[in-house]
Amino acid sequence: MTSEYAAGLVKEAVDRREEMLNGLSDDIWNYAEGGFQEFRSVERLCQALEAEGFSITRGLAGIPTAFQGVWGNGHPVVGLLGEFDALPGMSQEGACAKKQAVTPGGYGHGCGHNLLGVGALAAAVAIKDYLQNSQRPGTVIYFGTPAEEGGGGKTFLARDGVFAGVDFVYTWHPGSINQMRANHMAATLSKTYEFHGVAAHAGAAPHLGRSALDSCELMNVGCNYLREHVPSDIRFHYAYLDAGGRAPNIVQDHAAVKYLARGPYIRQVMEVFERIDAIAEGAALMCGTKVSSQTGAGYSEFTQNVTLARVLDRALHEIGGPVWDEEDYRLAKAMTDSLTESEKEAQRAMILERYGAGALEDKLAHPLDTVVGDYTPEKCTFVSGATDVGDVSFVVPTAKLNVATNALGTQLHSWQMVAQAGSSIGRKGMLAAGKVMALAAIYVMEDPALLEEAKTEFQNKNGGVYHCPLPADAVPPKEI
Q: Environment class of residue 246 by beta-carbon count within 10 Å: exposed (0-12), middle (13-18) or buried (19+)?
């Protein structure tokens, strides 16, 4: 199949379904469901896949909102990763350049996962059309993966063998530029520490009490001293889940704190947690309390499979980025006008690096990406962001794409991101991403030598061995 014919096929397949795909994305944006609670979103995605002839299996790895849709038979088998969870406190009106919640304190798609999930579905149905028209052997699987934001749904799926038999995986993420990134993304792990003490009257008999809250406080002090004695790119953060109640005249007999650590490699993060565990035990010993801990989400580090990423890069250049109109530029400019001064400085730096000083004023006035950047794997850099796609990349060759769905300078996990994920800007980027992933998948499926090269690279990465950061008995929470 020629490049021109393949590109034309996927463009036609996605364009023909544009209305359906946009409506599906808008519905999921409106549902805005939190991790492991994405029931309405999953139902809509499954309905759309079933209408295309995909066979649906729900409840993967025992997770109610994890599912797969399968079309075709035989090898090669390509997997597409779809996400659909929203973030708490991110509720925001769509296509609105003023901070204005739909539901105060409610959820919103601050990472554009409504676009991510439907863009992957667009790729899946375009690959289905290709297999159907060509009569070639092959299988396309859409994986519905919940709770990427802090729940690590894919880690549970990887641990439980859900991706066994898949030859390669493509996915993408909404962003502000069109480019294959040469990034090494962080590994993360979280743990909750619960301290158990003895309650007492804080005035009349404080000596009879054993303060769980004091234990938390001492643990935090110890961890703050630890920060000086770990590698400089290791970070850890904490949040109180239980401060022991609202009455200061009671010695608190219960308190809990959650820690999250991140670093370049999961082995480093797990080593840091051995030391955090010891600090927690020491804090309990000092206060005469007891401590228990429970592992939460864990993400292994992510790096691109360079072989697969080069194919995505080729497809991105052939398909091109989204095509914007004046209404898109107007909304994008209104969005960037709402940025803080420090965010505007970061936006200017981004534009200068990407376009040069000569284009600065024009791009500030029309702040949407209009070029396709080149993939430069030799310039791979570490970024402190994390994704549970990392765990998928340890069990199957995986590559991830970035396509513009928001204005240059937009920060992830912001109300501006939510607003654009529910706008024409987001939808246009979503459809472009679907076309790119489908075209790249077709190229790999038609070239056995290329797929073998990707598998060899994968094997060299970790010897085919995956060490899950989660304990074998860890189960996903019902919600996060």
A: exposed
